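Quick one, tokens below. Sequence please?
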């Protein structure tokens, strides 16, 4: 037909996009064949292939998964050397075992020690992006069971990257298994056994000194406040476990987990003390401001101005700093016992 234009795929922007994705897929395949050392190449391929929100292209992930199955990454005799750790409790364990130099990145909860806080971050524990992890070229991802979403973990596995999920659980009994797990994984089992023994001895000493508290105070723990109804801790939480370890009792007894409570319900609990994580106190201008905000001014805690604010990860993380956290909380709740703790 006269005047008709001939279709030229080289001028079609959609076709150019296809060619770009194919080039990225080939780069991803080469990276996956190289094992975890090629993970950064895979991450760059995902960016070029139009991945959004840290999600790699489906084709790149399929190619990487196939290559990873065909050519698994070699395992070092001395354990992994480039680790991304998801979970502040696990970060602290790795550093306490003297293996902090192996960590190349963490999620946002990896704030202690200072060397961990300075490392690259890959996002929030429960919403991390796999592309950020892969860009660090790790040979292992060590993850708290709360890490997610699951699709992100699946993408890491599909790229041929080993993902090790640590044991879960709340309370002090969960700590020694986590330490042993990390020690075995890193080839540091003797160091892990020594660390667990030392921490167990500290906890036993504290338990002995706290056991004879004559009148345990009631403590209300709020995980958040300032936006909507305050979220209070019932039973079965890390906060509930810490309150008991410090020789006190949870003011909330009617439910497990966390639930929003009205100002009237909070007042009716009549707590002797209010316990807050640091981020919740900072959000409302400090602990004393929190007492007035949630209507606790007329309670025993409010009349005494008794508010305890603690580092959230130290308080709730259940890791190497837990004995320190128990001592700090017990001293705040039992002023007359300070010289014994």
């Amino acid at each position: 037909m006269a005047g008709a234009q001939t279709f030229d795929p080289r001028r079609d922007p959609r076709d150019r996009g296809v060619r770009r994705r194919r080039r990225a897929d080939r780069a991803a395949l080469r990276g996956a064949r190289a094992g975890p050392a090629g993970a950064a190449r895979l991450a760059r391929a995902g960016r070029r292939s139009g991945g959004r929100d840290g999600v790699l292209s489906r084709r790149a992930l399929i190619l990487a998964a196939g290559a990873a199955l065909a050519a698994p990454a070699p395992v070092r005799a001395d354990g992994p050397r480039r680790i991304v750790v998801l979970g502040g409790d696990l970060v602290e364990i790795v550093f306490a075992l003297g293996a902090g130099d192996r960590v190349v990145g963490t999620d946002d909860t990896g704030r202690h020690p200072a060397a961990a806080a300075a490392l690259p971050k890959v996002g929030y524990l429960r919403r991390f992006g796999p592309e950020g992890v892969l860009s660090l070229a790790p040979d292992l991802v060590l993850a708290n069971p709360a890490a997610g979403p699951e699709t992100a973990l699946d993408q890491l596995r599909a790229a041929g990257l080993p993902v090790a999920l640590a044991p879960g659980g709340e309370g002090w009994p969960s700590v020694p298994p986590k330490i042993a797990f990390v020690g075995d994984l890193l080839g540091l089992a003797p160091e892990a056994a020594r660390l667990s023994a030392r921490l167990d001895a500290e906890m036993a000493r504290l338990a002995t000194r706290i056991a004879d508290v004559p009148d345990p105070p009631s403590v209300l723990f709020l995980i958040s406040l300032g936006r909507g109804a305050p979220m209070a801790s019932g039973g079965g939480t890390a906060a509930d476990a810490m309150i008991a370890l410090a020789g006190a009792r949870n003011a909330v007894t009617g439910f497990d987990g966390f639930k929003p409570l009205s100002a009237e319900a909070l007042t009716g609990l009549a707590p002797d003390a209010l316990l807050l994580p640091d981020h919740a106190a900072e959000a409302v201008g400090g602990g004393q401001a929190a007492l007035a905000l949630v209507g606790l001014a007329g309670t025993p805690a409010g009349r005494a101005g008794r508010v305890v604010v603690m580092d959230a990860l130290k308080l709730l993380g259940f890791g190497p700093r837990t004995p320190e956290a128990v001592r700090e909380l017990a001293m705040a709740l039992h002023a007359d016992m300070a010289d014994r703790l």
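Confidence is low (pLDDT under 50) at residues 1-19, 24-37, 39-56, 61-75. The longest helix spans residues 189-210.
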